[in-house]
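Look over this record as teaching material.
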Amino acid sequence: MPGLRIGIVEIPNELLKKVLWAKYSSDISTPGLIQKSMYYYMECFDWDKYLESVENIYTQKYNLAKKLINEKLSDKLKISNSNGGINFFLELPRGYLSQDFEKFMLDKGVSILPGTYFFDNIFDDRFFRINIAKSSIQDLEKGISIIYDNLDEFLKEYKNNINIKSNKIFY
């Protein structure tokens, strides 16, 4: 069911109007047909078994990525403590920009996301995210190995190459 958007949000009262407006302006409401389809799927198929299989897959991916990141990258990059999820946040040493690292890694065939997409402070752009959701086990192994194999080259080539670029969209 492509485009399915059903979810639950718990938000503080002071943000309620802003969140409702954002939802309204993005899709007004979720059509009844979509809601009924989701209900049918959850009722007639083994939803709990499906959730268990998804949990197992993501647990495997998470554990593997955490192990590889700790083994291969922790001596050169700071790793934000993570106790689960689909993202790992890592920090380049001072004097480097995650936006440069993103371009460098894309040329090597690995996609990361600079921290400027998540943090307001573009002047301290050392953080980047590795996401494990879409990648297969083999792609995670390959991607983290490529980062490891090319990290020294990046650190040598881009030291103090500070040219801050914002990727925020202003209207």
About this structure: The CA atoms of residues 10 and 126 lie 31 Å apart. Strands lie at 78-79, 87-91, 113-114, 127-131. The helical segments are 16-27, 32-44, 47-73, 98-107, 137-157. The chain has five helices and four strands.
